[in-house]
Amino acid sequence: SSPLQKKRRAATARRQHLKSAMLQLAATEIEKEAAAKEVEKQNYLAEHCPPLSLPGSMQELQELCKKLHAKIESVDEERYDTEVKLQKTTKELEDLSQKLFDLRGKFKRPPLRRVRMSADAMLRALLGSKHKVCMDLRANLKQVKKEDTEKEKDLRDVGDWRKNIEEKSGMEGRKKMFEAGE
């Protein structure tokens, strides 16, 4: 094998080695991240959710339930407020990105394809509900009766005047006229 092929094999092997090393590194990072999230979750739960101790008497249980309901309501309000803030910031972000896009002035043109469309359909697409004029081109054509066509046929039978002139010109035409005259 040539030195060029050896170089290619070495480059391919090196690339594969680097790829596998990167994948292993990414897998260990994902595991570390998951473990860190679990530790963070346990710390949060320990801080915000103290272990539950159920009191013995009925009145103490009712007090505990009232406290829990109040806590649930406050958490629900916080969640609602956070959702509203998130929606507001998302909308602002979309508006700003649209403004940025408009300022750049780069509009991506969609790939256009040819579409067969009648004049009516085109006007309807352009004008929408305002389109009332019918562009049927055959609508304004003259109606032809059979009698008219028969008259035209009679005229066609007479023949083209140019043909008659050509036939009568030259020696052949004079000969025919002479024979016809006899």
Automatic annotation (TrEMBL):
InterPro entries: Troponin, Troponin_I, Troponin_sf. GO terms for biological process: cardiac muscle contraction; skeletal muscle contraction. Residues 18-106 form a coiled coil. GO terms for molecular function: actin binding. The keyword Coiled coil applies. GO terms for cellular component: troponin complex. Keywords: Acetylation, Actin-binding, Coiled coil, Muscle protein. Binds to actin and tropomyosin. PANTHER family: TROPONIN I, TROPONIN I, FAST SKELETAL MUSCLE. Troponin I is the inhibitory subunit of troponin, the thin filament regulatory complex which confers calcium-sensitivity to striated muscle actomyosin ATPase activity. Belongs to the troponin I family. This is Troponin I, fast skeletal muscle.
